[in-house]
Amino acid sequence: GHWIGANLVTLTCLFLLAIGGWSRFFGTGPFSQTPKQIAIAIGIIIGAIVGLQVIALLYSQVFEAVLNRPLGKQLASLFLESDTIPQLLGTLFIVGIAIPFYEELFFRGFLYDALEERWNPRVALIASSVIFAIVHGVTFFIPLLFLSFVLGWLRLKRGNLRMCFLLHAANNSSAVLIGHFSGG
């Protein structure tokens, strides 16, 4: 069921991109970059992932200390259970590529643009980030709000979704791999 849903949403997003224009969200420039630009992009991705993991770890520690119960895993446990290599690869495709693709297209693409038309870029960044975190649930609100602000900032600074998608995909993929190889 997850494969079907992920593929349907991805196909829908590709259709919307086709009618709305790929360049509107992913830019028209070449994908090749200078070594300096590549190093900066890799630094942003690694720094954000490390920062998010530290925030998530601290958040879970505070949550458990304050409420005296473990932090629930929600849907994460469903996606992080991959007993075989084909399951792991499927999970990486869905969680690491498909989901970041359509979430970026929706939250930092369509939603951000609609909010920016009505208000200004900063309000669009804040509102789309808060909505992203709320949609993902209360349990992980703080870490996801941090991730969403970083993604929104990248959208604001870069003017397109390329780096947003790469960071989101790298973050989700690293979470899947960390969960898989650490036993959840």
Descriptive tags:
184 residues; mainly alpha; single chain
Description:
With 184 residues, the chain is an all-alpha fold. 81% of the residues lie in helices and 0% in strands. The chain contains 8 helices and no strands. The model has no long low-confidence stretch (mean pLDDT 75).
Q: Topology as H/E string?
A: HHHHHHHH
Tell me the structural class: mainly alpha
Q: How would you describe the shape? A: globular
Task: Report, as a whole number of angstroms, the end-to-end distance.
Answer: 22 Å
Topology (elements, then pairings):
Elements: H1 2-20, H2 22-26, H3 35-67, H4 76-80, H5 85-118, H6 121-135, H7 141-158, H8 162-181
Helix pairs in contact: 1-5, 3-7, 3-8, 5-6, 5-8, 6-7, 7-8
Short structural summary:
The protein has 184 residues and is mainly alpha-helical.
